Amino acid sequence: MLRTKKILAGVLAVAAALSITACDSEPVSTPNGNSGVNSNGTPNAPSTSSTTPATTIDPDELAATDAENKDVNSDFFTPDGNSGKIVWLGYYDLMTDGSASEQYKVFTSDVYGGEIEYVSSPSNEGYFEKLGTLIASDDSPDIVRYEWLSYPMGMSKNMYESVDGLIDFTTPLWSDMSDIIEDFAYKGKHYYLPYRITTNFALNYNRRAVVDAGLTDPYDLYLTNNWTWDTFRELLIEWCNLDDQNIGYCGTGGMSFIATTGTPLIDVQADGTILNNVSNANITRAMEFCSGLYRDGLTYQKELGDWVDPTLWAKNSEQILFLGMNPEWTYSAAAGAIQNPTGVENDICNTPSDFAFVPFPRDPSADEYCIAYDSFGYMIPKGAKNIKGAVDWIQLNRVFQTDEALHATAREDAINPEPVYYTAGKYEGMQKWALVWDERVYDVWQDMMDPTKFSYVFDDCYGFNAELTTIADTVLDTPLFDGASFSQISAENAPLMDAIIDEYR
Predict the structure, then answer these.
(1) Coil, strand, or helix at residue 386?
(2) Are the C-beta atoms of residues 439 and 415 closer than 8 Å to each other?
(3) In the beta sheet, which residues pair with residue 355?
């Protein structure tokens, strides 16, 4: 299985300075492509696998509700009720985060007997700086989330505890993730057990705007296996020809396009071998396709500013045809921007939005339909004091992912969520806004996480250091958004990339 990665940046400078490293790598800074967005499609978002809350900033909307907790099956993992307190270092609170709040409730119940102390951290550079300082001062947290820079940089710097011997990942609980787990093995050890794979990037669009413009719905092209680079380009041309102000494509750079060829730019093998594919024919072909989009005037040129997030896009989705960004975050945030403005009185409840998404188009020359994927999970920092509790938390999150009862109701809950009402505060008795998934969009989302329908590609190019991050941005983004010559850029940067990679070999 191939791979491609999520850029959530950080720096190990403090760790390196305090001599807890296993090799001599340089710190990494946040990548930011010429498209005006970070290559993970989000500046400092908690998680590309986490549903971002509604766009409201009204504190009263955090008041208590009558929402019920979920019960989970313990057939594959039975806790002993003595998980104890674990320390979580993060830039969001697990208690309120959409990807972890239910697990939090179960972990802190009598079933697990756990407690989670939240230690707040900045994201990006500040996150790894704080983690490095805590490890070096023997004050390590017990759990942290996997970041793109955790692999290979964090592992090469001995930032994490190996889970070999702590978790039996050959059991039925983890067996479906065996290929992915091995994909993240580093020099014979396992530090990261992702509990689920997630979509990475998709093409988000306003279905009503597409239909009103008389264009073919990309969803229909996807269903009939006609969603290719060629039909994607044709839609961009038709859209931009309708109005001089229309913008065809905005968002992440060339990474998602090269992923559809089945070849990542940089590929780290489990034994430590690292492949630099910048001169690979598939990479060249994909980036030349991207250059062609720019030459035809089909890509974003900062007409609305440097950074187009889902909220800004939602309000301009009748001008911008496609936003290449994480679909789960974009779908939720875009819907919230329209349906959930500040103040419950103005909410539009119980209604799917007009937004939709499809995978990046299939490479017509590839043997399989390949897309970029990501994964989500937790890691145990070096020097953690409650490793047993951290293991229980990791196992619990996998239980949630594999629980058949939860899976059976998840789709219905997404499409027809049970109304939840405030039980306190100034909105008492009023309905709390919740995202309502369009049925077709939900099924496309699930398709994109189905290994029987796609082959997955994971790119390690953003897991090294600041210099390689900058080079990757140049290589992947400038042909698409600045019209740079890929052949010239690749020739100039290939030896620089090799020199950096050699430090990890």
Answers:
(1) coil
(2) yes
(3) 206
